[in-house]
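Bumping my old thread because nobody answered last time. Still need a sequence for this structure:
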């Protein structure tokens, strides 16, 4: 019996040992199998010069957000009332009716404007329905003056996106030289826009056109001399305003005498300073007549921005904050051309161009890439630039005031100041030519004081106050100051 009991004991021992071994082995196996390297932390939004910053890393959530869980897109404005990034953007939308992704984007960012392009338009009724969809998606009202303001480049002639009958163009108006016809054309286009819900007319063209290699087609200009362009273009603008819409003159500082750069796509304005007087004259006259908006092109003008001769006017503080604002005293809206244009894409990502244009003195920027992610990146870039001190809150606030003046005018329209008929001697008399003297600008760095800047440039604090319309000595990092010259 003893040997049998011993055998049973050994079998039991080995059985228990085997079971325990299996259990321990399985436990260790599961434990070892469950060990993984730690998940990397999600990337932090940042501001860099790299194209298409990866500020968003879950694109699926961008296109199909949960209706109930969606946060208030303007909630962050409760504490930062002067930051509304997309307020400074005029965007484009795809198609002739809105898809879900575009509706979500509009509801989220609430852009300041939407530019209708020819592929958005099939008929009057369809255009009206699309505009209604846009307004309802944003949710800030459906009236002409409610955001986003709807814009279109209805010049007439070859630029007739509304497909209006008998849409006479600039070249034909220039051939007749009849100011009343130009005013009537502007009025008809403005009325057609207002009936559809369109508030902004990106016209008239203020460029003079010279030479066969001009970057602007001749048939879009009112002539080759200021004496022709000024009365006709300003009469056209008056007609648009009489209809209750807002004209935006273009393309400052002068696309009509520029030549295309075959490498980068910039329009090169290579004239010397004195030779630019006639080119700039229609724009300065429009400023004096308080034209509501000016569109600034991607045009390099080394004579006007000698320190950075390859910088386009659309991104130049010398031309925007300096020439237009400080020297000419322009109080209307400055709109920078498309941040996605080939000329810009060759040198910088569009979100960087948006920030640069606002830094330079633009109030709003065209951003015509329709990709929702890229539009969100542009908005985020503006926010980060403000947070990092690269873009002044006060400067954005002043831009917002100017943009709001458009809405105020649309609710209570009134004509341009003065008469733009050919009898207006100021447009044609041989007065002292307009010359753009050398301009200097200074971007305020964090910690700088007005007195220190005045000492650096050898000017007085009072001169800086007057030239920059400062009420006191308070300045902020990122603010662009015009510096008096001798």
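Sorry it took so long. Here it is:
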């Amino acid at each position: 019996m003893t040997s049998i009991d011993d055998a049973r004991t050994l079998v039991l021992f080995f059985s228990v040992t085997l079971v325990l071994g299996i259990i321990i082995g399985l436990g260790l196996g599961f434990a070892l199998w469950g060990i993984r390297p730690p998940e990397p932390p999600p990337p932090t939004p940042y501001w860099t010069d790299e194209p298409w910053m990866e500020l968003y890393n879950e694109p699926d959530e961008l296109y199909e957000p949960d209706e109930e869980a969606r946060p208030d897109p303007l909630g962050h404005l409760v504490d930062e009332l002067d930051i509304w990034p997309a307020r400074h953007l005029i965007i484009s939308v795809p198609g002739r009716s809105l898809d879900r992704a575009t509706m979500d984007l509009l509801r989220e960012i609430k852009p300041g404007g939407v530019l209708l392009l020819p592929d958005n338009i099939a008929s009057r009724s369809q255009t009206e329905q699309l505009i209604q969809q846009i307004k309802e998606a944003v949710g800030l009202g459906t009236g002409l003056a409610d955001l986003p303001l709807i814009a279109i480049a209805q010049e007439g002639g070859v630029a007739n996106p509304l497909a209006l009958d008998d849409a006479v163009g600039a070249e034909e108006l220039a051939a007749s030289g009849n100011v009343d016809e130009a005013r009537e054309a502007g009025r008809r286009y403005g009325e057609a826009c207002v009936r559809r819900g369109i508030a902004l007319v990106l016209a008239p063209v203020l460029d003079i056109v010279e030479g066969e290699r001009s970057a602007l087609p001749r048939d879009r200009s009112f002539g080759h001399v200021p004496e022709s362009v000024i009365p006709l273009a300003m009469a056209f603008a008056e007609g648009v305003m009489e209809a209750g819409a807002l004209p935006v003159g273009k393309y400052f500082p002068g696309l009509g005498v520029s030549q295309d750069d075959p490498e980068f796509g910039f329009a090169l304005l290579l004239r010397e300073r004195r030779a630019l007087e006639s080119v700039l004259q229609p724009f300065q006259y429009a400023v004096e007549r308080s034209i509501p908006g000016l569109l600034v092109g991607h045009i390099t003008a080394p004579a006007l921005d000698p320190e950075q001769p390859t910088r386009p006017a659309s991104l130049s503080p010398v031309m925007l904050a300096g020439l237009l604002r400080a020297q000419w005293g322009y109080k209307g809206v400055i709109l920078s051309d498309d941040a996605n244009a080939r000329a810009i894409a060759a040198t910088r990502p569009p979100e960087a161009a948006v920030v640069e244009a606002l830094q330079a003195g633009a109030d709003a920027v065209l951003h015509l890439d329709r990709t929702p992610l890229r539009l969100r990146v542009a908005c985020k870039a503006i926010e980060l630039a403000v947070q990092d001190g690269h873009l002044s809150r006060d400067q954005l606030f002043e831009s917002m005031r100017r943009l709001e003046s458009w809405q105020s005018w649309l609710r209570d329209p009134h004509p341009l100041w003065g008469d733009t008929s050919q009898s207006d001697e100021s447009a044609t008399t041989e007065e002292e030519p307009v010359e753009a003297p050398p301009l200097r600008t200074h971007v305020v760095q964090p910690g700088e004081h007005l007195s220190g800047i005045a000492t650096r440039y050898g000017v007085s604090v009072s001169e800086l106050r007057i030239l920059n319309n400062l009420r006191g000595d308070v300045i902020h990092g990122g603010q662009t100051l015009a510096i008096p010259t001798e």
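The chain has two domains: 81-427, 440-483. Let me know if any region looks off to you.
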